Amino acid sequence: MFQITSIEDVKSANRKIIMQVMRVQSPISRTQLAAATGLSKATVSRILGDLLEEGLAEEVRTTESGVGRPHILLRLASKARFAVGIELTANIARVMLTDMNARPIKQRIQPVINQGVSGIVDEIAAGIKDITRDIPASQLVGVGVAIPGTVDVRTGIVSLEYPAGWLDYPLVAHLAKQIELPFLVVNQAQAAAWGEKWAGGGIQISELLFIRLGSTVEAGLVINDRLHYGKTHSAGAIGHMTLNPEGMPCACGNRGCLNTVASIPALLANVRELLKDNRASMLMGMVEGNSSLLTFDHLMRAVQAGDGLAVQVVSEVGRALGVIVASLFNLLNLEKVIIGGPLSAAGNALLSSLQDEVFHRALPASLVLGRIEMTRLGADAASIGAASLVLQDAMNLHEPG
Ligand SMILES: [Zn+2]
Fold it and tell me: What is the pTM (predicted TM-score) of this model?
């Protein structure tokens, strides 16, 4: 069908392209902006004039060699707009204020255990009020909330019950009653993938997989520069991909899912069994001979100290993950895989076995530009991602095309 494009549409598209380039390449000169966008210098100057007048862009004076006439470069004015990004887990709400580049400004971590859904909503609302009290309302663009489970990003309806009580709970409607700001609710791993894409190791990466290793294994997928939610918003359930059809039973009813090997509860159960067999490890001292006292913190400390058993078990998780990730490289021809979530604290012990497994299994053609690395945003990835999604909506900064 033939579609008429108005002059206003073209202006708005050009402005979006310029802001998008400035977001990832700054500071940047007017000439570089024209070259990067394919727009004329006159168009670039006119749009920059608008952005400077609205306070969304700012000039930076610089002398490359420290002498001579200063160049005038441009960048987005990071303090022109602010957003709140929240990650809600079964235990805590991480409430973060970010600037326009989704960089954290301040953060409040609140326990949310045993509060029920409405208690959690009250906690979140109080956290938002506290963290934004110095920000003028006109500069605050909205709130993004990242939660575990399957969630419809448009309505905020949770369709997979986790934590208990969230099934079909209209989170957006309840939060909106308390906070008069635009809201968005998104799955935690999908948010973290977008956080990496906006402000972490995924900048300028168009085909990205983020894997969150925590109480379950979940993924967020960026395809062709866009977050891929799937038809009913549940894309990324990597923890239920089958590793071994004859393996241990999984909560989903199948056997041998990745979660039965690589989730933190499965990993700890495995280590407890090994300790019962009197395997030599500093973990025995940490739990005073009682393997049932083993915690995730103990295990991470032992990995970081180079304990043989601890390093071995997380390496095995890396290899199991590698089997699945190799198939995903073959399917999607990914550019980068980023590993986050609490188990990313295992660092190189996990990463090197994962990389080895993928490099042995994936087709060379699928892996030619592929890289696998640990998160640069750490525990902040999902809250930064939730804030990024809000900023992107508010500034209409969706990728062109
Ligand atoms: Zn499963």
Answer: 0.91
